[in-house]
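PROTOCOL LOG
Step 1. Enter all chains and additional molecules of the complex.
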Amino acid sequence: SQELEQSPQSLIVQEGKNLTINCTSSKTLYGLYWYKQKYGEGLIFLMMLQKGGEEKSHEKITAKLDEKKQQSSLHITASQPSHAGIYLCGATQGGSEKLVFGKGTKLTVNP
Amino acid sequence: DGGITQSPKYLFRKEGQNVTLSCEQNLNHDAMYWYRQDPGQGLRLIYYSQIVNDFQKGDIAEGYSVSREKKESFPLTVTSAQKNPTAFYLCASRGGFNTGELFFGEGSRLTVL
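Step 2. Run joint prediction.
Step 3. Record the structure below.
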């Protein structure tokens, strides 16, 4: 089965700092999703990437999918306490609708 | 408004009892999913369905069962065979194959007493 490795597992930054979260697979990623979650609550959709080399931005968050479609990164610029939460990447592989997620990255932003 | 509705939001059960979690969507989506989340963990796939009357096991299907008799409904039964059922359960759906936003419900928190 496809496994998605997220790194780091947790991250503590000072408000205003930039940060990057990575999502890596040994297999080609299709329909790569990034979500944010406050623990025990529903997921908030951030972005979806499909094409190799694709990059999308929303407010201070930028997501990229590399050309080989095996790694994605989520970059937050000038972090704020409102960015704190668990960030999850999810993807499908090939011709299947099986959609799996990584273990998540817990982000803490200190004022 | 279109979306996914999960119920109940909180559920308590005694050991040895089966319990069914409801998931209904009015988005006309073909694919539906059930995930389990434990504290500090990501989402683990239990079952998924690509079309009515068809479903496949995910990575942790043991002790769970599902049905997909209607396009809009994908209920999950947590059976007594599930050794550690206390968890947060999330249902999701999406439209076209490998396209479109994945919509999530608000989740159901199951506690076994």
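Step 4. Note key features.
The CA atoms of residues 2 and 27 of chain B lie 6 Å apart.
Chain B has a mean pLDDT of 91.
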